[in-house]
Amino acid sequence: MESVRNVNSKVLIATVALYGWLKVAQDLMNRKDSEDRAVCPAKETWLDDKSSAWENTSVETCTILSWLGYGQEIIQARRDAYREFGKLLTARQCGEATLIITGSKGEGLSSFLESDVDQMIVNNKVFCLEDDVKSCAFPGEITVLRSLSRKSYHGHCRLLLERRGTTIQRHVHDAFCDDGYGREILSSDLYVNNWSNVEGLTEGIVQHERAGPSIPSTVRGHMHHDKVHALHYYCPNILSKWAARPRHWPPTEVVQYVVSLGAFLTPIGFKGSEYQHVEWRVCFNAGEIELISNLNDTQTKLYVLLKMIKNDVLHPRKKEVSSYTLKNIVLWMAENNPQSSFHKKSILQWLHEALDALRVALITLELPYYMIPERNLIATSGLDEEQQRTWISTITDMLNEGPKMILRLPKIRKSLIAHPEPFRWYSGRRIELELLWIMRMNRVAICMDENGEVDFTDAILQALCRRIDEITTDVCVRMIMEGSRVINADDIGVRILMENVNDDQ
């Protein structure tokens, strides 16, 4: 627990700093009445077919997205909080593993309960090396594996045992099998199953059926987690090839930092491969979080709008089009175009471009992975012909609608017809409530001992809980005054925290 105490002071500073983000919520509630028009513009602004409508509607869309919880300040607050949460969880591993909060939570693009908390747990006792990388630099207790990419699809590999560490974890040891040529190979299937057996023993957590490389679980009935147990992958050739591309974005220093963050291998093979049960997929979660963090405000909101379209218009059944697909479209657009062209007056033009790119990808069934372009993200999407035709037709209709297409999104449409004062009041309460729960999450981790017991007498923790109760009560009272029926205040609080777009990865 000493390592936990060593980071407590830093995390406490970050937790206290989050109080500063509460000003965001206060600002939302204290805007002047003259700004109401920016929240709920005149109907004719949205229905005008003239070229100026694109710019006007773009500006109003950006304003509404900020009110809905997608402003730069709240997004950065989420990112900072989940980064610190990952550090706290890592400290509890005592050097055995590094934990990274990935997905929409790590990117700061989802509210507290609206989507799963994706955790990548990276084993620090096993390192995987690309060809031509020497293993002598690693200490003897580290197990070293060599990637074998021949006969595997782009972005996938098999892992041959090169050197067994002096201390090897059981779930790693039991995942080795023979490759048919007398060599030991680490099975991705066995690795996930071994970890699944360990995760299933945790009291108070309901574990669900394995989903690809992840082990889903639910805590307290509404807190959903997806854990992926991954391995470090040292692949300088892949990363240097990505870094050497000519680009408008990101800047050189960000490119270098992304390279320094390295890569990981997740236990999932290429669908349909004869080696699927022993293959691993190359991913760059830490680097991709950094890339998303370096998008400007318009690019970030473009990504949010695409995810809304996926959930509210396309309704994919089996992740044939995922948030990951859309993220790659945005990253390619950011790399290939000047940053100055992405501004609040142009977001709908870029949404038009992004939807056209998605339409082309659905027609051709090709979308290159941003980090490894040779890997086609739609190659194994499972998209059937009927779904393909329907989506192409829907997207084509949206493109023909011009700026009116934004009215297909329920969140945007409801925000337009909402009265400015209650909309502003509720948005401020919701954002403050979310920030308080994020602070509480980190504070609980700080106040937890090695046995998992939390010191609920902590003064900061009690103050956070009191303010959470106050805001929830305020919302319930207002709902009653406006004629709504409130049965359970806790349920109301949960529903507030689950709002915005439901996400998947």
From TrEMBL:
Q: What range(s) does the Mab-21-like HhH/H2TH-like domain occupy?
A: 301-389
| Residue spans crossing the bilayer | none
Q: Which Pfam families match?
A: Mab-21_C
- Which top-level group of life is the source organism from? Eukaryota
Q: Which InterPro entries match?
A: Mab-21_HhH/H2TH-like (IPR046906), MAB21L/cGLR (IPR024810)
Q: What is this protein called?
A: Mab-21-like HhH/H2TH-like domain-containing protein
Organism name: Dreissena polymorpha (Zebra mussel)
**Upper classification of the organism:** Eukaryota, Metazoa, Spiralia, Lophotrochozoa, Mollusca
